Structure formats: C-alpha cells, structure tokens
Task: inverse folding
C-alpha cells in the first residue's frame, strides 16, 4: 500500500477575494485534526482509533423506529413545528432526572437545550467572551472546545492536571496571576469525568477542593460532562454542579448515551446566565431541533434507557480491555499511557525522540489512525502524545490497531536510535502515568 | 375578559451577580417581540396573526412516519451517528435540485447545511462581522436577522424599499456614504421574495439593477429566501444568486416547504466563504442534525414534494384571500396595507395618531394578536406599522381576526380623534401601498 497523504489545511493557495471582509475571529480557524481524519478513518482497511464516535449499533432500533413513526403520526403538526428556544418542557424535566444520577438537583427552568452539547459550549462562550478574555482550561483539553474558544478569540491559559484531574493550586495560581497582570478571566473549563483526551477523572476529594478554590478566587466553572454515565468501574461520582449551583454551569449530552445524530445536548446554568443562553439560542437557531428533542423524550419515557446505558458500559469495558491489553503487549519500551475509568479515551506519551504528528501518515499507511496530541493543547504542547479511542471499533479491531501502532512506533524508535533523535524539541504534555505529578503549578501557557 | 399583560423583558429587577462577566454583545439582546408572543398566541381563544409558523397540517404524515421508521430500521447506526459539518452529501445534491426551480446553478460542494436557515444567517454574520461593522438591510427587515446582527454588534443601516423591493439607488448611496465616513460595510441583507414583514417582492428588472449596483460598489449580497417557492400568483422569479455566483450568498430553508421542527436550512456561497462557514459550523455544533437531514432527504426522494408545495400554495391562497377581504371590510379609513404575491405576511400602516405597540395589549384582550412594526427596524421606525401573518390560522379565523383588529383600531381612532392624538411622534416606516414611493434615497438610519 502506498503512502497516504493526509488532509491539509484547505485552499491555502487559492486566491480569496473576500479576504478583507472576514472578521478577525475567522483568521485562526482551521479544520480540526479530528474532523480532517474522518475521511481517512472511514476507509474499511484502516482501524481508526481516532474518532470519538459512540458505538450505537446496540441501540434498540426497532423500538426507536416505532417511537419516531408514532410521534409523527400522532403529533406530527406539533413535533415538526417550531418550538421554544429553551427547548421542550417534557424533555427538560427528563434531563433533570438524568442528571439526578450524578447528584445534580435542578428544575426544568434551569435547563437550556442545545444542538448537541457542542452548541451549549458555543452559546456559553458567546455569552461571556470578548476577544482577549482568558479561559482557564485543564491541559490537555477537548479539541472541539479549544476550537470554539478560539472562534471567539479567547486566550486559553492551560492549567495542569495530574492523575486526579485538574490541580486546584494550579488553578488558583493561574487565576491570580492572570488577574494580577490585568487580564479578564471569564471561566474555567473542565471535563471532570474521563477527560477528553486523557481519560482521567477528578477524585471526589479533588472536586471539593476545586470548588473551594473557585469560591476563594471567585471563578465560574464550566463542567463539560458528556461521558459521566459511561463510568466503567463504579457508580458515577457526584457532578461539580451537585456541590454548587451558583458557580457551576453544567453541560450534558445525549450523544454518548443515546444518539449523536439527533444533536441534543443541554446546559444547566444559574438563572441570569440561563436567560442569556436562551436569547443566544434564539439568535443562533430560533430553537433547537424539535423532532430530535421529542424523539429523545419518547425514548427516555418508553425504554429502559438505564439498562441500555449498562449495556453500552459492558461493550466499552470489553473495548477498553482490548486496548489496554494490546498496548501492554505491543508498545515499545518508554511508552506510557493512562488507564481510564470510563469514557472513550486513552492518552499515550511516546518515548523521547518520537513526534506523533509526523508519524501519523506512516501509521495510516500501516492501517491504523489516531489523533496527535497537539490538537488538545492551545500552546503547542503534546507533540509526544497520542489520543486513542476505544469506542467505535470491535475489541478485535482495537487489539489489531494497537499491534499495528506498536509496529509503527517500534520501527520509528529504531530509526531514531540509529540515526539520532528526529524530533529533539518534542515536548510531552501531561506527565506520564507512571511518574509522580508535580504539585507545583506550571507557568500559565497561552495561545 | 380581563386586560392581558404582555411579557416584559425578563428579570429586569433581579440582581445579576454575573453582570460583569458577560461579553458586550449580550447587552443589547432582548426577547424578540415574535418570541415573547408565543405564549399569548397559543391561547385557544386568541386568533394569532402574529407568528410565522407554517401550516404543516397538510403534510403526508403517514408517509413521513414510514420514512422515519424505515431510515432508523435500515440505516440507524448511520443516520443516528455524527456526520460531516458541511451536511450530508445526498441532501446537498437534492438542495441543488430544489434551488434549480429558481434558476440557481450550484453543485453540492457549494452548499453548507445549517440548523434552520436562521443558523446559516448566524454563521454568515459570525464569519464577517466585527463590532461596529455595517450591514445594509432593507427596511423593514426580518426581526430574527436583526437580532442575530445585533448579537454580533453589527450596525444596521437601513435602505429604503418600495413596491418593487429594495431600491438600488438607495443601496448605492448607503454603501458609498458609509464608506465615505470610514465605516466598514460588510454586506447587504435582503429578502427578495415576499419580504418578512412586508410581503413585497423584488421585480425581475429590480433584481438585475440591484446586482449591477452591487457590482459597481463591490458589495456582497446575502439573499435570504425562505418563501421563494410559496409564490401564489405565478412561477417563482429567478433568485439573485442565479445572476451572480460570486457576489451572492443564498440562504434557503425547508421550514416553510416541509417542516421547521427538523431545523434544516442551508447556505450556498462562493468556495472561500463556504470553507469559512464549514469551519464555523464545526465550532458551533460539530455538525447539523443528521437524522433531520436524512429525513428531509428521504421525503424529497420518496414523495411528490412539488405537488405538496402546490397544495401548500392553495391553502395559503385561501388564507391570503380571507385576510385581504377582512382587511378591506374591517379596517378604519386611513389604514393601508400591502398585497403580497406569496409568503406569509401583510404589512399594515395605521392612520396617524395610532401606535401599534401600545395597542397590542388591547388587541390581545380583544382576542387578536399581531406583531408591532418596530421590531423590524433597527432604528425605532415602524411605530405605525403592524405585521399580520396569514399562514397558520384557518381562513375563517383569519377573517374573524381582522374583524377583531378592525374593532380595536376603530375604537382607538375614535378615542384619538376625540381626545387628541395619543402618539404624536409615531413615525410610519415603509410608505403605504397607495402612495408613490419616493425615488430619493433616505439618509441611512443607524442603530
């Protein structure tokens, strides 16, 4: 098989007659690594450990099909019509029941439905961010969030994580030092459960401490929680929002527990912020997809969705096991990785001398795809990191994928050792799992 | 029946502890008059001539239900999964066929699918507008567009319309005078067919002239066309985009020809702009609703949708007739209104001395609702105007609604004549239909 060339930034060489008309915010936007990889990942011969697509093959499709048809037959003129910008009331009530599983106490008027939780993130950013405003974000962070933040010209200041998640002292230092230099810190963005990309989770004690620090330095927290219910080893931990209703905006999603193609997510926010989000939703879409909302609502009401989430958990447990076994058997010495308690992702740190971005083309040629680590940092870190996802392929494919990746890394490492380090400036991000994390906060790293 | 109090701006008196954190762009956002009226309009005893909800009761619901169920049964893991940010390819191909009915020649790669055409408008604005940038917009304009423009801190400069739509000379003058004063004009926003709120349509000759002026002053046009296929008296006119592929961004929607609750609209743009829109869509939602797109696609492929649009046209013709007859019979002397050739709306100009905003509560008490004209101007004009929609209620209800409205206006006019003009400063917007429009461009009016 020949060398595969990866998608490049589009149309770089095309003369753009509209260039002088674009807003400044569009200048930094580029196709994300994750999105660009979709085309490659879809080739049947490639094992994609890249995408974060949930494995929804196990859904009760006949039941969902019947619900959809029934909704349209019985309530067509309503479920196919415009709705309110805040979202359908019955669904918002059910969302509160879903969140109660993680200790969140909220009423339907606290909830704003969005077109996937990505859009909730967009509306939050739109509500708070002026160009140059600071967002504190754990490092590494979800590439889609960094992309949204950049589209509003936020400056992302990364805050260190360790095995227990975002470090409270690092958060405090980052907030204080930004403010001391006169910068406006708007909020801190965190994924407490099974962080994308690391798979790491904030411990209970860590959550309490983070909220104490947030109160001490008067900081708003954005808690992004798409994976919370996909806890694989024990019951979900209480959400940050369950401890503090005024200082936490909670973002949730049905994309991982039901179906991403419906695009139904939500935000829970203190009322003044909620009001802003509703107005922003009106300006952005008039209303989130009504039929999608009604279908989610019918599914939650008519199906044992908790049992379904348990079945998803079983499947992901088998996939995680295949990945961890494969890594154990096939990774060259010096490679380290996280052991996630849930969610979709494992985060690799490569041996010194390897660069994950430059190895990607070789990997795809060897029929395995991953996401290089740099996309998850706003500051160029992550060159020695790789995000692997175990959500979509079968356990057998995942195992085979790690074998192919092992070959690529081993060969690259042999080359590097024979001919010298090829990437001497490569900087790893998160400390590898087998090192003690430092308790000292790093200097804030800026975009 | 008691006096009805209308929704006010929400939570004005509540102390908002997050006030210092909000971005400047949120300051001007308020609940739109149209949205606030939803609650009132839904009361069964009120004839709502306010909302722009299409009458979708005539859809082939059994067929749509079957298509939905079939999609999920046969292709569930695909149609319920994430999709590409640009939208599903088969749908984009079908969208090109739909647009061909209005003379638009485009390929699927020119199309970006959005969460309703409102979101296309949002993405366009996000792509081009810095705070303070000028958008030229015909006066009056769609309230939802003005709302989006405001949310990006654009300055809207209105351009006069007459019975043939946006005035080319006024457009030229506005563009030149804004630039002469050093302001950045980013684009001109227009609804060529059955403008919301006036119902007026650009003549063919007018379209050609507008494009000439746009070329002369090097101006990008945003052509918003949700109602084009709902032409009631003759075949649709060619779209602006059919004359110029480089200077026109076209926005379309399935909300009026199929179902708004699916939230499927689109933009057609020159490729450099299209690329920006795709990136903006990634940041905003990752992808537009996939299942909705597939359902629209299946509907277009499996149903005589043109025949269905013809049936919608028949229904709207009857509704328009009921409204125009009712207005003829019930409006007090001095009231004028437009006679739309399609779409959903009639635009009233009240006799001097009446204020449409202050009469609304009385009207709702008298069981008829409308939208006051001021929402459709960025500059406070429209106090003597009313938007009436004939899309949703039955012809009998519409006729009865105009009768009730006639009572309210007649009584208010009697009062005004007895006790003096109550609204001496009320300024009408568009010249009434029975006056010759001035050919002189007005001074640009700013937000």
Result:
């Amino acid at each position: 098989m020949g060398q595969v060339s990866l998608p490049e930034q589009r149309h770089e060489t095309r003369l753009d007659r509209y260039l002088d008309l674009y807003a400044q915010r569009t200048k930094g936007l580029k196709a994300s690594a994750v999105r660009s990889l979709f085309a490659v990942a879809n080739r049947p011969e490639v094992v994609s450990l890249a995408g974060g697509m949930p494995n929804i093959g196990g859904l009760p499709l006949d039941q969902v099909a019947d619900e959809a048809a029934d909704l349209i037959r019985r309530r067509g003129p309503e479920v196919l019509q415009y709705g309110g910008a805040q979202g359908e009331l019955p669904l918002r009530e059910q969302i509160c029941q879903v969140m109660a599983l993680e200790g969140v106490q909220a009423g339907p008027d606290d909830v704003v439905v969005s077109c996937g939780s990505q859009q909730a993130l967009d509306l939050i950013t739109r509500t708070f961010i002026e160009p140059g405003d600071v967002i504190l974000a754990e490092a590494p962070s979800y590439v889609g969030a960094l992309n949204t933040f950049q589209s509003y010209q936020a400056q992302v200041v990364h805050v260190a994580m360790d095995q227990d998640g975002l470090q409270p002292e690092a958060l405090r230092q980052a907030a204080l030092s930004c403010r001391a230099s006169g910068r406006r810190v708007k909020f801190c963005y965190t994924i407490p459960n099974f962080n994308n990309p690391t798979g790491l989770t904030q411990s209970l004690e860590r959550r309490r401490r983070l909220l104490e620090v947030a109160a001490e330095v008067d900081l708003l927290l954005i808690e992004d929680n798409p994976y919370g219910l996909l806890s694989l080893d024990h019951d979900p931990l209480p959400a940050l929002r369950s401890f503090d209703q005024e200082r936490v905006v909670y973002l949730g999603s049905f994309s991982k527990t039901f179906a991403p193609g419906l695009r139904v997510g939500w935000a829970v926010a203190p009322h003044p912020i909620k009001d802003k989000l509703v107005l922003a939703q009106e300006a952005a879409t008039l209303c989130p997809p009504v039929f999608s909302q009604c279908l989610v609502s019918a599914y939650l009401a008519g199906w044992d969705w908790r049992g379904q989430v348990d079945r998803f958990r079983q499947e992901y447990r088998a996939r995680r096991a295949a990945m961890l076994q494969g890594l154990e058997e096939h990774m060259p010495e010096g490679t380290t990785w996280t052991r996630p308690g849930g969610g979709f992702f494992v985060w690799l740190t490569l041996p010194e001398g390897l660069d994950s971005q430059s190895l990607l083309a070789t990997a795809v040629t060897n029929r395995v795809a991953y996401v290089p680590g740099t996309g998850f940092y706003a500051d160029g870190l992550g060159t020695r990191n790789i995000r692997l996802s175990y959500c979509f392929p079968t356990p057998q494919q995942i195992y085979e994928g790690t074998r192919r990746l092992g070959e690529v890394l081993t060969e690259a490492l042999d080359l590097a050792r024979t001919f010298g380090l090829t990437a001497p400036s490569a900087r790893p991000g998160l400390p590898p799992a087998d090192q003690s994390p430092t308790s000292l906060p790093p200097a804030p790293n800026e975009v």
